[in-house]
Amino acid sequence: MPRRTPRTTLDRLRTSRRFPGFLKTASICVLVAGLLSPLTQQAAAATAAAPNDYCGGQCSDILPPGENGNATLAQILLNQAFGTQPSHAEDQLGPYANLATGYSGLTDSTVNTFFNDASFGVPSDQVASSEKPGGRGDVTIVRDKKSGVPHITGTTRYGTEYGAGYAAAEDRLWLMDVFRHVGRGQLTSFAGGAAANQGLEQQFYRNAPYTEADLQAQIDKAVADNGARGQQALADVKAYLDGVNAYIDASDSGRYFPGEYVLTGHKDAITNAGTIEHFKVTDLVALASVIGSLFGSGGGGEVNNALSLLAAQQKYGVEEGTKVWESFRERNDPEAVLTVHDGQSFPYGGKPADAKGEALPDAGSVTQEPLVYDRTGSATTTAAKNASATAAKTTLGSARRGMSNALVVSGKYTASGHPIAVFGPQTGYFAPQLLMLQEIQGPGISARGASFAGLSMYVELGRGQDYSWSATTSGQDIIDTYAVELCQDDHHYLYHGACTAMDEVEQKNSWSPTTADSTPAGSYTMRVWRTKYGPVEYRATVGGKKVAYTTLRSSYLHEADSIIGFQMLNDPGFVKGPQDFQAAAQHINFTFNWFYADSQHTAYYNSGDNPVRASGVDAEFPVWALPAYEWRNWDPATNTADYTPASAHPGSVDQDYYVSWNNKQAKDYTTASWGDGSVHRGNLLEDRVKKLVAAGGVTRTKLVQAMADAALADLRAEDVLPKLLKVIDSSTVTDSTAAAAVAKLKAWVNAGAKRTETSAGSHTYADADAIRILDAWWPLLVKAEFEPGLGSDLYNAFTNNLSVDEAPSAGHGPTGSHAGSSFQYGWWSYVDKDIRAVLGENVRGGLTEKYCGGGSLSACRDMLISTLDQAAGMTAAQVYPGDDQCSAGDQWCADSIVQRTLGGIKHGKISWQNRPTFQQVVEYTSHR
Fold first, then answer.
1. Contact, 661 vs 472, CB < 8 A?
2. Which residues of 478-505 are buried (b: 16+ CB within 10 A; e: fewer)?
3. Per-residue pLDDT tens digits for 844-856
4. Which residues share a beta bridge with 472?
5. Spatial distance between the Cα atoms of 549 and 534, rounded to a whole number of angstroms
6. What number of other Cβ atoms are within 10 A of residue 875's Cβ?
7. Most buried residue, 296, 432, 758, 858, by CB count within 10 Å?
8. Are the C-beta atoms of residues 655 and 782 closer than 8 Å to each other?
9. In angstroms, rounded to a whole number, what is the distance separating the alpha carbons of residues 504 and 348?
10. Is 749 helix (H, G, I), strand (E, B) or coil?
11. What is the pTM of this model?
12. 881 vs 888: CA distance, rounded Å
């Protein structure tokens, strides 16, 4: 029977134009969450436990807020008015949140109090419902009572994928629709003109300005280049889309489609007039471009790097300024935490001995290329223009934020002798979540886990029959900036000596107020000028010559290529051990760290199409668009080139343990983003896991506790604050304000330096004053420590490369504030190295000079006390000024995680944790 709720009078109501504007976006990554309804279904015949499950009941997972992303118009109205929740809309939120206060008492037998049982199949007494989507006899979707996760079992490959598409639409149709419009740069016309919607579509259109022909060509090439697997992938996609579209038709005719279609004016609640467009293959390529851009495209920032280098050279001279710049860049810092820590070296992205082809801009000549033209109405507001500026900064920088962690321990160091892994991606918090859970069993497919909505023909992060895998964002540089010399006018450039016209691509968008988004009418045109070297991002002069700076990434025009790697990971006939896992990951062209565990082995592999650069090219800076400096064997027609071989990518099997929190992968392997130094949030995992391994007897409980403990730690307080206090304690503190602040900070450090509630649900931090003081002090001390020595121009240039702080209450990450992920980017390594140098301690890979107090311990101490006095005097309302979620001065709320209820269903805030959104805990007991 169709998955739906019986219609009531409310289903037929036309909503008032005064309906709260809950769909109006409030962050740069606004994603309108379309929630389909939970449905009453008949319980099916008993489903036996799967015989192909080798985890022995020791695989668990969690994905808040809940599996059900469906809400009819009636359910949206009820939620808005009374707070009622559709079934399974938030039943994973409580267990997820409760780990923050419950992990200390965790045991192996209570792990699934905070996680789902991720065993294959559904026990007979836990079957909530069963359906034959589209009336087909070759596929069944069973949902379990606890979480409502779809367990899709097919007897044919087509039926299996049809069921996967049908289940995806049941749980995430509106979100899928939003994403395909984001990927095409058409969000405002579809979902409304709120300023953040404008910013979001601009962010992705600037990065991937594809035409329909471009999207089709990508799937054609991915299929053609991969033989039988490519053909199978296309067949899987088509079957999946048939399932999606079957659900669209069924829900439309049955009138149980997502209520957001009514609220945004696409459907009429009374007459049912309006259309929900069917999905097509190119929609999935557009979806993939969004996900790849958010989480798997390392690199960029070369123009900002050039500007800070020039500022350093302006202050210190070319030779010394270059040394200063390199010391802050920390390309290969010897004190950085490493994922592959067994001494292996994987040179990539290092500084060439003799750089060639650099095209540094003339001073003051750089201007950012406009994207938006012909603004009208609400597109002309200050908020709209600010959103555009933020979108451009997000796209053009090298920082890729908030993406995932992993803790993996070899069986040699566990109590059972089997490897244990706790890992998952940090993808922000939404309602519904960007990811969805599912189990897929069919010919050539056997997996359970998480997939991005609309791309769930395969499990992307999860488990197979006797192995699990996960990923973190890696961020190695697959994006280069080229300086194309202009000729004739601003829209022609020299390509191999010939004056060549740029390709103009544009998208016109307009919007009007709806019930969901009351933003007044407006419109604009996004226009991108494309060259063979990628889209134009800046204009400048180099040596007096007019140039356009373009960005070229290896995954540009290749958003669909990774489908083959995911297909392999889901295939039990392909993955039978760690080497097969690594071979599958080698087919993923996005930049990720991949981790693996089975009952005997662990493994790691860093994926991505790393281009082979011309000899002497420094990937940190723009280079001339000339044949001598192009990627080796680069073909501009297909954007293909030679890529570094798998052996050159960081990889390992059966290392004693692996940790990753977006830190440096291996010795000599440079990531594009700044901040891989002596203090990184990866150290929070490294220190805890290394201690566990040294003691031996690691259990699932102990590894989860290590993750959960790190998730509450303030990196600055744990790893840097003790050194700051050491400077202050170098003589007696006589200032009473500073002395009181120091006492509070010491007590906090001694208590573990965590941001945690006094008790579950108190909404008040233990050591609240100390936390407030450090939050206020950090930006003050960093500025006072470094700006006098660097000078304002260079200090500001470096802060454009690497932000000073990323505390939980800051507006940061792909989803803005209240996003959980924290402490990825900041100046903690610089402060750590500088303070240790001033103290006379050994520093490997130190800065070129001492900055705190000009190198004087007493002057440094005076600065720290002065800024500490200032910070201690700041009120909570000054430190936490409030936002759309919190009143000024509410410290707990400022840090809290918000499930961005940008669709119809609202959820409550939860206490801060710095932890994966989707997470697995696995320990396999046997192997095929």
1. yes
2. bbbbbbbbbeeeeebbbbeeeebebeeb
3. 999 999 999 999 9
4. 593
5. 9
6. 11
7. 432
8. no
9. 34
10. helix
11. 0.94
12. 4
